[in-house]
Amino acid sequence: MFTSFNFKNNPVVTMIIVANLIYFIILEADGGSTNWLTLVYWGAKEGISIAGGDYWRLITPIFMHIGLFHLISNTIGLIIFGPVIERIFGSQRLICIYLITGAWGNVASFLTNNAIGAGGSGALFGLAGVYASYLFINRGNLGGWGRESLVGLSWIIGINLIFGFTLDGIDNSAHLGGLVAGWIIGILLCPVSRIILTSEVDSIPVFVEKTILSHKKVSLWAVMIVVNIILIWLSTRAITLMFY
User: Fold this and answer.
1) Do 17 and 78 contact (CB within 8 A), yes or no?
2) Is it the case that residue 204 has pLDDT exceeding 70?
3) Does the structure show a pLDDT above 80 at 90?
4) Alpha-carbon distance 59 to 103, whole Å?
5) CATH number assigned to the domain comprising residue 18
6) Quick check: is 197 in a domain?
7) Residue-range definition of the domain harbouring residue 46
């Protein structure tokens, strides 16, 4: 279902892991990653601050983690989902997906509560949503493997959401925000898988099936980025006016 992770073929995944680790070390060195004063100072999601204009707090929490277990669990999730998205979409598109879905996760969290929050879970659910939409759109060409992967992914997402609703301290609104944003981005912009016949000449010509990906134009991705920035800003302003 997922590709293996290695530093050479997954530069963006590697960069995100390193950024998370550096951020965690900074937090630990300045009061601890579980200290709410430290978290707020270094950019955690906090409703009053965002309402006051700290919109950058929709991005910085994506790379922050509260405690070692939080860092390890999200790193495992990134290693699971990141490489396959980087292979399908490419490195530049991956970082766009990660940041945008993570920001939408924090917008959803900002809507539902003003508690301090941090973590890349919203972005990870965003990657899961993008991958689910890719499997759904290309289900005809991916065959049984694609359908089985989509079912398995649905189970993973569902189980994690159930845990989020039943356990304390988990911001399920951020998970849902990232998941929905990832699904929408994927539905609109995921590459289409096509099967073509190619000839491989050895002693005699042999025709084999080859799967290629047709990516959406870069201009469409640029429009998607701009539109999402505008919508995120408008949503944040609307939430502020309604609830703060």
Assistant:
1) yes
2) no
3) yes
4) 6
5) 1.20.1540.10
6) no
7) 11-191+217-243
Residues annotated as catalytic are 121, 175
- Region of residue 53 (left: phi > 0; alpha: psi -120 to 50; beta: else): left
Number of domains in the chain: 1
Cβ burial 60-70 (10 Å sphere, 16+ → b, else e) = bbbbbbbeeeb
Check: CB of residue 120 under 8 Å from CB of residue 20: yes
Residue 79's pLDDT band, with cuts at 50, 70 and 90, is: very high
pLDDT at residue number 144: 79
Question: What percentage of residues in the chain have a pLDDT greater than 90?
Answer: 73
- DSSP H helices, 30-171, are 36-41, 47-51, 68-89, 91-112, 121-137, 139-166
pTM for the full predicted model: 0.92
Residue 172 lies in a domain: yes
> Residue 53 and residue 113: Cα distance in Å, rounded?
17
Q: Which residue has the higher pLDDT, 144 or 236?
A: 236
**Given this model, what pLDDT does residue 212 score?**
75
